[in-house]
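Exercise 7. Given the encoded structure of a 196-residue chain, write a plausible sequence.
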């Protein structure tokens, strides 16, 4: 694996994951509080499932650091490339399953995430892409220590990559369907009637 492949992989993954919280209404995090539209569950269950969710997600990040960061892959050897791609696909599938759990938990319900919950999802995706970046860097050679400046700049870049999703969610005007306009008009007419 060469450095340019790793960089482009991270940029593409960052572009997708930074927009995902804004484009999808489906929750990606098992949060310890009830989201709007979510089924009522006991508080202890919400906290327990949230803690377990983040423990599994942290374990997945540690597995990525070990499997990718400490593995030896050579671009000239086809078996080595196949092994690397298999590990990368297995980790991506595991991450997809873990991140699908909150949506599965609230299946059949329409969840409305607020901006704070979307921001938390954005930060978790930033951490996941960052862990993959550190693992790829460790695989290519020595990992360098980073100061706060590195994290401030990369977080800013990640937020900028997520700007199209933010615009789509919050700034773009959407046309309401004819049926929605008709229902709103009937509701206003019913509210204006004196005997209603």
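Solution.
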């Amino acid at each position: 694996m060469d450095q340019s492949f790793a960089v482009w992989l991270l940029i593409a993954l960052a572009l997708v994951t930074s927009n995902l919280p804004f484009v999808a209404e489906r929750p990606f995090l098992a949060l310890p509080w009830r989201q709007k539209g979510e089924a009522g569950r006991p508080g202890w269950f919400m906290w327990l499932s949230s803690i377990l969710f983040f423990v599994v997600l942290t374990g997945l990040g540690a597995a990525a650091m070990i499997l990718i960061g400490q593995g030896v892959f050579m671009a000239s050897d086809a078996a080595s490339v196949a092994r690397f791609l298999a590990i990368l696909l297995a980790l991506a599938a595991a991450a997809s399953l873990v991140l699908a759990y909150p949506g599965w938990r609230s299946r059949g319900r329409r969840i409305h995430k607020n901006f704070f919950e979307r921001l938390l999802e954005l930060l978790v995706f930033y951490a996941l892409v960052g862990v993959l970046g550190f693992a790829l860097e460790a695989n290519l050679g020595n990992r360098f220590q980073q100061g706060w400046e590195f994290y401030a700049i990369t977080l800013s870049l990640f937020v900028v990559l997520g700007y199209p999703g933010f615009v789509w969610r919050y700034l773009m005007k959407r046309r309401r369907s004819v049926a929605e306009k008709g229902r709103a008009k009937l509701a206003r007419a019913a509210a204006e009637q004196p005997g209603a």
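Remark. Residues 3-192 form one domain. Students should compare their own answers with the one above.
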